[in-house]
Specification:
Layout (H helix, E strand, L loop, with lengths): L4 E5 L7 H5 L11 E5 L2 E8 L2 E10 L4 E7 L3 H6 L1 H4 L14 H9 L11 H10 L5 H15 L1 E2 L10 E2 L3 H5 L3 H6 L4 H12 L1 H4 L6 H9 L6 H12 L12 H10 L5 H8 L8 H8 L20
Antiparallel strand pairs: 1-5, 2-3, 3-4, 4-5, 6-7
Helix pairs in contact: 4-15, 5-9, 5-12, 11-12, 13-14
Amino acid sequence: MTSEATRTWRPDWPCPVVAILAQQRRGSGDPTLRLDVGGRQWRASRTPEGPATLALDVRRRDGEVVAEAWGPGAAWALAQLPDLLGAADDWSGFEPQHPVVAEAWRRHPHLRLGRTGLVTESLVPAVIEQRVTGKQAFAGFRTLVRRYGEPAPGPGADVGLWLQPEPGAIRAVPSWEWLRLGIDESRSRTVVTAARHATALERVTADPASADRRLRSLPGVGAWTSAEVRQRALGDPDAVSFGDFHVAKDVGWALTGTPVDDAEMAVLLEPWRPQRGRVPLLLGAAGLRRPRRGPRLAVPGHLPP
């Protein structure tokens, strides 16, 4: 099938395409993002100009990313490609300040924060992930997409790529269907509210304080959800997922040898303001997580709004 648009982009640094794209993935079975399928990276999104399928061929020898896109939003997706892969992320002024962070940065010197520019796309799955285990959240999101979304344009459908449901489809999901998806009333109400305000949400700017304030003005959206959205949609380097079941414990263990709580993590990360979010990013990329002892959490309740 002939693509509707193509672009060859040469990053000015050794861009780790898969690692940066993976920041957007909601579990290994995410139907909106398929990595390493047929030697390419696939992403489906609802752009301001309409649905789009984006396929990336990474040519490391040439230092190029060859992108093809299909659908009404193809041109938008190609124009946004550098931001998606971290070209707009500025690490100037970041200082490791701690030997563990310095070593993580040495091992992953080219890691950057990508940004999609699509707020509602990040907000819907983030809300679904509130207060439940990752397994439950990813299953609920995956089923929502496949039941109420649609196959991605062009060859995206052939590789199992799907678009998130459009806001109108989300608003029309009956209350009992949300429960069948494993999404309780509190979270479904927040998702539907977000869908009602989708147009306004896409006007949220990249200014961290303004974005946080506007996101948290939505009922059911708290500090954790706001941070998750700002990281992915806006590439906010200072966004930290306070309230996460693992993040504070992992950061504390990596930096002090002892798991800490949110308040203690806030103190630990303060020297890195306004780039605090880079520390958990680097530690996670380096696999620096506290040893998991005992059974995995199997009940709802570990992520706040």
